Amino acid sequence: MVTSHSSVLSGTPVVPGIVLAPVHVVRTEVDPAALEALERRGFDQPEDALAAYEAAATAVADGYARRAETASGAAASVLSASAGLARDKGLRVAVEKHLRAGEGLVASVGAAVEQFATLFSGMGGLMAERVTDLRDIERRVLAHLAGEPEPGVDVPEGISVLVAADLAPSDTAALDPARVVALVTERGGPTSHTAIIARQLGIPCLVGVAGATGIAPGTLALVDGQAGTIDLEPGPDAAARAEADLTRRQAVAAWTGPGRTADGHPVALLANVADGSSARDAAAGQVEGVGLFRTELCFLDRREEPTVAEQADVYAEVLAPFAGRGHVVVRTLDAGSDKPIAFATHEGEENPALGVRGLRLAADNPGLLERQLDAIAIAAERTGADTWVMAPMVATVQEAADFAALVRARGLKPGVMVEVPAAALMAHRMLEVVDFLSIGTNDLTQYAMAADRLATDLAHLTDPWQSAVLQLIAITAEAGRTAGKPVGICGEAAADPLLAPVLVGLGITSLSMAPAAVAAVGARLGSVSAGLCEDAAEAALGALSPALGREAVATLLG
C-alpha cells in the first residue's frame, strides 16, 4: 500500500476537474485456481482444444460487438476494433502452433498473446496501445474456457475514483460517470484509449501515475485533473475545492455557444466523429460542425475495400445532420500504423508509425484514394453539406498540391493535416496549394519530440504543452493568418480547456474535439479576451516545462 510519505501521487493530466471520493482499485484477472483446473483437465486432441479456443474467442468478439452497438463515438470505435482483434486469424494460428507443440490450452493462449504483444510493442505508436486490448482479450477468452464470468470493472454503489494499472476499452466504454467520478491509471499516455474515452465521458482523468494500484481501497482521495495529482491525505479545504469545481462544471454544462472569446473573437468549436451515430449525437449538441470525420474507423473490420456506393452511403450518414449547419471536414483513410485495415495497409513494416500510412498509401494504389474521393463527392451532393476534405500524413508541398487537384476536380474544398514537423515548417507553402490546414497534435507531438506517444515513461515529452510543439503550432497558425486561410486543431489537445486560450492566442481559428468536451472549452474561451489569449500563448511558449506552462497560464487566467 502507498505509505504516508508519498501521500500525493503525480501523473499526466488528461481531463481537468477536481473530485473528492473514495478510491476503488480494479484488478481484472481470472481466478488462478480456475485456470489451473482447466490446464489439468486438458483435451484429448489439439483439434479439440483449438475448437474450444475458437468458440471462446467468438463469444468474446460477439460481446465486444454487442457493446459497440450500444456505444457511440470513440467508445464504439475501440470496441469494434477489439472485436476484430479477437477474431484475428493470425492469433488463432499462433494458438494452434503452440497446441500442436504439446503445450496446454492456457499456456498456448498466453504464448500467442505474448507473441503479438511483443510485436505490437515493437511497432510503437498506437499499435503499442493495442497490447492492452490483447491482454483484455486473453483474460476474457480464458474466463470463457474456465467457465468463469468475463472479468470486468466491478463498480461499487455510490461514487468512486476508479484506479487501475490500465483499463481496456471494454472497461472504460461502459462506465457510468454518475458513479465513476474520476479515472487514475498507472500506465498509458494522454492519447491512450482510457484518456480518449475519459474525455468523451467528461470525467477527470490522470494517466501514468506510478504506484496508484498500491492505494488502499476506500481511501478518500482528492483528484486534481488539471494539476495531475491524486492527494491521499486531503486537507480540510478538500471538500470545498471539490464543491467549487462541481459548481464550475455545472456552469460549464449550461454553456450554449457559439464559440467566441469574451470580447467577441469567433472560434469555431467542432466535433470529432467516427460514424453516422456519433455525428447525429454531435449535431444534437452545441458544435458548429465537424472538424474531423475519421473515415477509416468505419472500415476496420472490412477485409475487402467497400464499393464507391457503399462508402457514399456511410459518408452521407455523417454529412446529413450538418447540412446547412457549418462544415464537415472528412479525413481520407488514415490507415496504417495503429489503424491497420486489411484492404489498405502494408504488412510487415518494421516501423509502421514512420511507414506507408495515410496519404502515402495512394503512391502505389491511387485508385484507393480516387474511389474514396468519388464517394465523398457523391455524399456531399446528395446531402448538400458543406464538405471539406483533408489528407493525413502529408510531408511535402508536392503531395499537398497533387491531393488538392484531385479534391478540387470533384468540387470539394481541399486541405491537409499538419502532423509531420516538415508540414508545419512549410505551412506557408502548403497554403499556396490548399484552402485550409488542420493540426493533428497527437502525431505532431510524438514526431516533434521523438517519443512514442503511448510510452508511459515518456509522457512528459508527449505533452502538447511542450514549448517546441506550441512553436510548431504558432508557425502554422501564422501562415494561416498571413494567407487569410483557416487553421484548426483536431488532436486531443483541442479538448483541454486550459490550453484552448493558448491555441487561440497563437492564431488557431477552430478547435475540434469529442462533443463532451465542447462546453468546457467554450465556457473557458467565453471568460477571456482575445488579448488575454495572446498573453497566455506567450506565457506557455516561454515556459521551461509543460507543468510550468500550465501553472503560468492558470495563474494568468485566474
Descriptive overview:
The chain is of the alpha/beta class. The longest helix has 25 residues, at about 45-70. It has an eight-stranded mixed β-sheet. About 45% of the residues lie in helices and about 15% in strands. The protein contains 21 helices and 16 strands. Helix 4 (about 90-100) crosses helix 5 (about 105-125). Helix 13 (about 395-410) links the parallel strand 12 (about 385-390) and strand 13. Residues about 1-5 have low confidence and may be disordered. The two termini are about 35 Å apart. Belongs to the PEP-utilizing enzyme family.
Q: Which descriptors would you attach to this protein?
A:
metal ion binding; alpha/beta; 558 residues; TIM Barrel; eight-stranded parallel β-barrel; Enzyme I, Chain A, domain 2; disordered N terminus
State the CATH superfamily name of the largest domain.
Phosphoenolpyruvate-binding domains
Largest sheet: 8 strands, mixed
Number of helices: 21
CATH architecture of the largest domain: Alpha-Beta Barrel
Instruction: Enumerate the strands of the largest sheet in spatial order, edge to edge or round the barrel.
Output: 1-8-7-3-4-5-6-2
Q: Could you tell me the strand content as a percent range?
A: 5-15%
**Total strand count, please?**
16
The low-confidence runs, each spanning 5 or more residues with pLDDT under 50, are 1-5
CATH topology of the largest domain: TIM Barrel
Given the C-alpha coordinates, what overall shape results? globular
Radius of gyration (CA) equals 23 Å
Relative helix content:
40-55%
What integer is the average pLDDT?
87
